[in-house]
Description:
Blueprint (H helix, E strand, L loop, with lengths): L1 H87 L11 H6 L13 E4 L2 H4 L8 E5 L10 E8 L2 E9 L6 E6 L10 E3 L12 E9 L11 E6 L4 E7 L11 E4 L13 E3 L4 E9 L6 E6 L9 E3 L12 E9 L11 E6 L4 E7 L8 E4 L26
Antiparallel strand pairs: 1-18, 2-3, 3-4, 4-7, 5-6, 5-8, 8-9, 10-11, 11-12, 12-15, 13-14, 13-16, 16-17
Amino acid sequence: MSVKFGCLLLLLMLVNMTSGFSRSWRNSRYSLSNRMSSAERQLRTANQRILSNTNIIRALRLSLLRLQIRTSQQVRSLQLQINDLEQTGPRPSNRTTPSPLIASTFPPVPVVEGTTTTAVPVSCPNCVEKVRVNQDINLGELALSPTAHNVRGRVILLTNRTLVIDGFFYDGQGPDAHFYYGRSGSTPSSSGSPLPDEKGSFDKLGEYLNKTIMITIPERINVDNIRWISVWCVAFDVDFGHVVVPSSLKVTPGPQIIGAFSQLAHQVRSGPVTVLNSKQIMIPGLFYDGLGPAAYFWVGNGTQPTNEGRIIPDETGSTGLLKAYTGQTIVLTLPGCLKVNQISHLSIWCEKFEVNFGHVVIPKDLNIPCYRSSPRSPKYSPGSRATPDTSPDTSPDTT
């Protein structure tokens, strides 16, 4: 009996211990579950805060890029005006003041002493229909389904000449990857053309890990004509990721910088030449020694000046022999019906010996504003060897 009683007592003790362990285990599991739920909630909250902070950082980066671009444009415009004032001194303006809308949309055109023909960029029926880029235009996500080489990022048109790819990823393992753009279709193909990277280089793309990069669109490219942008493998004609640009996207015309004069003879050189509108070209910091026997401003077609070109008036409206220039900023106005999109170069040309002293190439399809002339006519020098074009400008002014 004592043995049976002892076994029973031992069994009861084991049952009590097992029950205690079971309760303790359930309590521990419940407590652990609560802790895990709390940790998950905290993790979700932290992820939301990180996402919110990431969006704020992206917005700040884009705002900083916009500010840098606008500041550089304003500094460039002010520098041109300062250079002009240093050469010619203060003087009253001989042109009408543009409206507040025009003044806020386009940089001011320096007034050159002796100029008798004036113009300001204005809106026209062709320009009014185009949308001004005054805020970010999200062109879409740079991605494929499935993605190739981990390419992804948000493509934004920041200004007429600036693309931003925010949060850009690319593993850098493609054999010959470049930024590419196309003028037709909605699918990238080998018919596209390369775009420079954020450094202005056309070399093979390296690795990008969540980078925000800014791509400057070359002056020769009209943004309105771009239909897609891609990370494209040239070696194997493979699209790693692309974004389609809406055909309805239009960018407001503006002055376009096309480069400086080549330096060939008679000390000809200049700063960055700017096409102001469909008939006016500004040449900052122009130098020429004035010793050419029969030198004129000369325009024509082709990449190099030839004797098949024609004379255009200087900044005073005269078609006489060119005088010396010592760093002045001048504005040339094309005569008659002639427009910028009808010429391919501007040069200082010796008509007598058919020699090019220096020239600048004018790209096609420049996105420039229209021109409005003042009622005054340009001067004509009777002693000039060239006959001025006095025909009225009756053709429609399109950009």
